[in-house]
Design goal:
single chain; alpha/beta; eight-stranded parallel β-sheet; two-stranded antiparallel sheet; 11 helices; 10 strands
Length: about 325
């Protein structure tokens, strides 16, 4: 089985653009429609801001240096309330446009390690520096994701399955000890693999417990795909161009074991010479041939190399169309 989907982010800066994005994904990506994200609307719509709108039990506010925890008092800051309000408005639009629609739906959240590397503690510096704080943030994310899945299921009754894509672009830097401290003069200590896996298991397990399917996405380099599989990811969304030699074997094993592997092959930004669907199909076929696999093995997906937030609206539609055409050709 081969499917087409999107990473999630799309261009646009207002409510009208969001409505158009919803219509586009439902039309162009019927295999697995991603709930659109429009980070061009500002910090409250960014990957971190949108995920913090989902997090349950922790309050945050937006500071000059970025998002910061402010406690568990039930008194979120103004920007946290705005992030939650914007998410609610977006889900209202999704609910409206999905009336009568039926299919698989995918939502996206930042993962526990990416949140820990980007959100600050109340007294400054990253959550990453504090074992207890990063555990609390992961648990709050897990609780919030379960509620978010229930909300999506209530709003989109035609959703036959819900996939939760956990975005972890910062995970390789966390493992390598290359995340800078607040001063910028030092780096946070590296996190070992068992610790990294434990927090991921907390979130991915909550997704599964909510009746959804946990996937992990990263278009960074040096991503530990074997660790993500071990933590419970049932789908891996990768940028084919960033894979190391050892990654190919891990992904081949994943496909054969029933894990969904989604290949990012469509350029996220319009290139000077756009690839044809035939060229992209042949690229996937060469990859499968290198691994000694047939396109019918497991569940294979096709998407863009990373999010489409920086693309023009025309290229975003073209990229989604290319992904769908390639998936059809491979099937």
């Amino acid at each position: 089985m081969t499917l087409a989907t999107g990473v999630g982010s799309l261009p646009g800066t207002d409510a009208a653009a969001y409505g158009e994005a919803v219509r586009a994904v439902l039309e162009l990506l019927p295999d697995l429609a991603p709930v659109p994200e429009l980070p061009g609307r500002g910090a409250t719509a960014s990957m971190t801001g949108r995920t913090l709108a989902v997090v349950d039990g922790l309050d945050v506010d937006l500071q000059p240096a970025g998002w910061r925890l402010v406690g568990t008092s039930g008194s979120p800051g103004l920007d946290h309330r705005r992030a939650r309000s914007l998410l609610g408005q977006d889900l209202d639009a999704l609910e409206e446009h999905a009336q009568g629609w039926s299919g698989r739906l995918k939502t996206q959240v930042a993962g526990p390690w990416t949140l820990a590397a980007t959100v600050e503690k109340p007294r400054g510096d990253r959550v990453l520096a504090d074992h207890g704080a990063r555990r609390d943030l992961a648990e709050a994310l897990a609780e919030g994701v379960a509620q978010h899945v229930a909300d999506l299921r209530r709003r989109v009754d035609g959703a036959t399955e819900i996939v939760v894509q956990v975005d972890e672009p910062a995970l390789p830097a966390v493992l390598a000890g290359s995340v800078p401290t607040a001063s910028g003069f030092h780096r946070h200590r590296s996190v070992d693999r068992p610790q990294a896996s434990a927090l991921l298991e907390t979130v991915l397990g909550a997704v599964r417990g909510a009746g959804a399917v946990p996937w992990v996405h990263s278009c960074a380099t040096d991503v530990p795909w074997d660790l993500l599989r071990g933590a419970g990811a049932e789908g891996l969304v990768v940028d084919l161009g960033t894979l190391r030699a050892a990654d190919h074997d891990v992904l081949a094993e994943a496909l054969e074991a029933g894990t969904t592997v989604v290949l990012g092959i469509v350029p996220s930004l319009e290139p000077s010479s756009a690839p044809s669907d035939k060229q992209l199909t042949e690229r996937v076929e060469r990859w499968l041939d290198m691994l000694g696999l047939d396109p019918s093995v497991g569940t294979l997906g096709v998407t863009s190399t990373c999010g489409l937030a920086g693309a023009s609206p025309a290229w975003a539609r073209r990229a989604m169309t290319l992904a769908r055409t390639v998936a059809t050709s491979l099937s």
